[in-house]
């Protein structure tokens, strides 16, 4: 076969790819967000694809006694039968699944789940295979215009800025041992003993844990309230006890959801030695911050972002509670579990963009971990709702939206935008940023058509600094790191539903 003949054969094969397959498709609905699809491909198409696979192999097929491309079709078919069958099956399945997803009226949110090796290509007759796929639930979009919402002012006071400056200095302080009873703001070095109250046995023990004295300590799998009162005037050698309830998703299944006792052995008391304002400015090393006035203005802007975040979250809760009041469709548990890390990642980037500290971010992440199934299921429903509104109003993330979002994250973390973008792209997390941008635009659209009542800011939001997020899981496994981009294990983002309507 000449090179011209080979090109013509391949061109004909390319033209054949455009011919739709003759499919018989049956779709079953075992669950709200799942479809079981049975596909039957006609014998004509199986034969056409098999011939195409043979034609694609002939130009390079080498058989004894023949130049490449000159061996008879029957000999090539016999010699390379296995390769031709695998290529035929692969092309048929890929094209058939793509055509099914294009033609059906559901929106897929995952890749089809089927066993490629279990699909057998028949010598004669049609090819039948089946697969499962997760889909966006079908629901009537509720009326989202004209909602009555409440919001508060996002302008910080001088006292708010003073407190923000104090917290920033705390982040750059060093710890020194002190010979006095502990007080609020100190850091304790603790050995933590976790005891099963039913058996009285120690189920885990963690040594040399540095825990600052805050009102609330949010571990990965439990929350300890009133920690400041519990450790008031504690000294080395003291042992304080507390009781906490482990989350339902705690790593130790025998203790999940149960109460355990904590014995906190105090080994050392440390206090923070904060830098002066001038030392802090020097250590920050930001060209635009030359004096305290510049620093306070930067902190004011960060506080505005944080208060706007709280306002947006408050509005989001109000909107979602109104629009999803009747969303009683169930979600597959495996989908919810897979998306837990995505939900944590989305929340982390939102908080980083708003300028929250690592302690505050870790506390929020641990909150989600402790009630992961409940919280993630709600987040997925919100995602489906916002995606529907976005699609119907042609809302999407534009290139400049990504630039702005990356710039915000970089500024709040004192990094370069180029470094943040490279990290996001390497980890395949630009989709998380895209969802964040789209959802924010949808919220803005809803708010443009809403009626507002101005209310005082919730004091609980102002008291964010009273919570400390620990990276320690009390039972079952070692420390769980804050899911920052510097850590290598990236979650798989929720795939954006394609428009199948």
- Mean pLDDT score: 81
Order of helices and strands: HEEHHHEEHEEEEEHEEHHHHHHHHEHE
What integer value in Å does the Rg equal? 30 Å
| Main sheet attributes: strand count, strand direction, barrel closure | 5 strands, antiparallel
Give the second-level CATH assignment, the architecture of the largest domain: Orthogonal Bundle
End-to-end C-alpha gap: 46 Å
CATH topology (fold) name of the largest domain: Trigger factor, domain 2
Integer count of domains? 3
Give an overview in words.
The chain folds into three domains: 132 residues, Alpha-Beta Plaits (2-Layer Sandwich); 204 residues, Orthogonal Bundle (Trigger factor, domain 2), CATH 1.10.3120; 100 residues, Roll (Chitinase A, domain 3). Helix content is 44%, strand content 18%. The protein is built from 15 helices and 13 strands. The strands form four sheets. Strands 5, 6, 7, 10 and 11 form a five-stranded antiparallel β-sheet that branches. Strands 1-2-3 form a three-stranded antiparallel β-sheet. A three-stranded mixed β-sheet has the order 9-8-13. The two termini are 46 Å apart. The C terminus is likely disordered.
In short:
The chain has 501 residues and is an alpha+beta fold. The protein contains 15 helices and 13 strands.
């Amino acid at each position: 076969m000449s090179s011209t003949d080979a090109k013509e054969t391949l061109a004909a094969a390319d033209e054949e790819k455009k011919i739709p397959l003759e499919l018989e498709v049956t779709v079953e609905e075992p669950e709200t967000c799942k479809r079981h699809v049975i596909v039957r491909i006609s014998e004509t198409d199986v034969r056409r694809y098999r011939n195409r696979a043979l034609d694609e192999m002939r130009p390079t097929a080498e058989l004894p006694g023949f130049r490449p491309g000159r061996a008879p079709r029957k000999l090539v078919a016999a010699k390379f039968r296995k390769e031709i069958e695998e290529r035929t099956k692969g092309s048929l399945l890929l094209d058939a699944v793509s055509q099914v997803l294009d033609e059906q009226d559901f929106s897929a949110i995952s890749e089809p789940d089927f066993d490629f090796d279990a699909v057998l290509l028949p010598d004669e007759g049609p090819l039948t295979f089946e697969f499962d796929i997760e889909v966006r639930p079908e629901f009537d979009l509720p009326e989202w215009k004209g909602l009555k919402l409440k919001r508060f002012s996002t302008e910080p006071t001088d006292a708010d800025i003073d407190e923000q400056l104090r917290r920033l200095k705390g982040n750059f302080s060093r710890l020194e041992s002190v010979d006095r009873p502990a007080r609020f703001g100190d850091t304790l070095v603790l050995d933590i003993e976790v005891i099963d109250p039913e058996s009285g046995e120690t189920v885990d023990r963690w040594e040399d844990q540095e825990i600052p004295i805050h009102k609330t300590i949010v571990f990965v799998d439990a929350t300890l309230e009133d920690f400041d009162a519990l450790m008031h005037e504690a000294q080395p050698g003291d042992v304080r006890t507390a009781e906490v309830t482990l989350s339902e998703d705690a790593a130790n299944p025998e203790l999940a959801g149960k109460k355990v006792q904590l014995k906190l052995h105090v080994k050392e008391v440390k206090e923070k030695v904060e830098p002066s304002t001038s030392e802090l400015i020097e250590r920050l090393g930001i060209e635009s911050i030359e004096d305290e006035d510049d620093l306070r203005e930067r902190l004011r802007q960060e506080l505005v972002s944080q208060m706007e975040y709280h306002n947006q979250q408050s509005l989001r809760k109000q909107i979602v509670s109104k629009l999803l009041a009747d969303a009683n469709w169930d979600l597959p548990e495996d989908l919810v579990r897979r998306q837990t890390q995505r939900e944590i990642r989305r929340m982390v980037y939102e908080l980083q963009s708003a300028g929250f500290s690592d302690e505050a971010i870790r506390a929020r992440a641990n909150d989600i971990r402790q009630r992961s199934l409940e919280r993630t299921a709600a987040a997925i429903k919100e995602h489906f709702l916002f995606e529907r509104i976005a699609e119907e109003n042609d809302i999407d993330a534009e290139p400049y939206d990504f630039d702005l979002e990356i710039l915000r994250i970089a500024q709040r973390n004192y990094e370069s935008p180029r470094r943040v973008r490279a990290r996001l792209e390497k980890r395949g997390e630009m989709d998380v940023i895209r969802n964040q941008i789209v959802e924010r635009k949808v919220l803005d659209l809803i708010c443009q058509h809403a009626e507002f009542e101005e209310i005082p800011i919730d004091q609980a939001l102002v008291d964010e600094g009273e919570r400390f997020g620990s990276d320690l899981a009390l039972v079952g496994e070692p420390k769980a790191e804050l899911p920052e981009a510097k850590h290598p294990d990236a979650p798989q983002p929720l795939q954006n539903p394609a428009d199948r309507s």
